[in-house]
Amino acid sequence: GYKIVISNTNNKHSLGSSKYNERRAQCDQALALLQTRLPQASCLGEISVVDFDANSDVLTDPIIKNRAQHVVYEDDRVIRSIAALEANELVAFGKLMIGSHESLRDLYEVSCSELDIMVEEALKIEGVLGSRMTGAGFGGCTVSIVREDAVSQFIEQVGKNYAERSGLKADFYVSEIGDGGQEIIL
Predict the structure, then answer these.
(1) Which helix (H) or strand (E) holds 92?
(2) Are 130 and 98 in contact, with CB atoms under 8 Å apart?
(3) How far apart are CA 163 and CA 33, in angstroms?
(4) How far apart are the first and last CA of the chain?
(5) Per residue of the chain (186 residues), what is the pLDDT tens digit?
(6) Contact of 121 with 145, CB cutoff 8 Å
(7) Rounded to 5 degrees, what are φ and ψ at 145?
(8) Could you tell me if 27 and 184 are in contact, meaning their C-beta atoms sit under 8 angstroms apart?
(9) What is the DSSP letter of 175?
(10) Is the C-alpha dihedral spanning 165, 166, 172, 178 positive or negative?
(11) 72 conformational bin, left if phi > 0, alpha if psi -120 to 50, beta if neither
């Protein structure tokens, strides 16, 4: 009863390799500091939320702390998302999508006003379970889970409001939800 709607902001990605490299360096710096207490961690993805919260005081630079918090909590959201999908809990999955966008916007700072507008407008539509930016950020697309009977309203209303607020015309792509990749046996 739901569709995935990809909404293209038509704001060209303004992500330079410098911003990607900057985020990477900030995460590396956070990891090095956290390893003073958690030497077994070879990457931020190996640090649990509990361990991060108990040891994040070593991250005295608020930007470095935000970057690491995003990565650690995002990994946790992914794990919880898998469990929600396996339990067919789409509402819970949608909330995790929203949390992901908020973290990408506020902690990792890779969103932009156009992506934020698109998500804000999507979440105003009854029947939208979740919405978030997708890809590298700084422009590009959002992905939303939309109740099938709300897709037309979503495209019309989000498109209209996005154009009014951003000055750009969005494109929308409706996708079926399938079983994903599978082994083909001949």
Answers:
(1) helix 90-106
(2) yes
(3) 44
(4) 32
(5) 999 999 999 987 665 566 888 999 999 999 999 999 999 999 999 999 999 999 999 999 999 999 999 999 999 999 999 999 999 999 999 999 999 999 999 999 999 999 999 999 999 999 999 999 998 788 899 999 999 999 999 999 999 999 999 999 999 999 987 777 888 898
(6) no
(7) -100, 120
(8) no
(9) E
(10) negative
(11) alpha
Residue 139: DSSP 8-state: S
Provide Rg for the chain, Cα atoms: 18
Say what angle helices 113-122 and 90-106 make with each other, to 10 degrees: 160
Q: 5 with 157: CB under 8 angstroms? A: no
Which residue, among 168, 159, 64, has the nearest Cα to 112 in the 3D structure?
Answer: 168
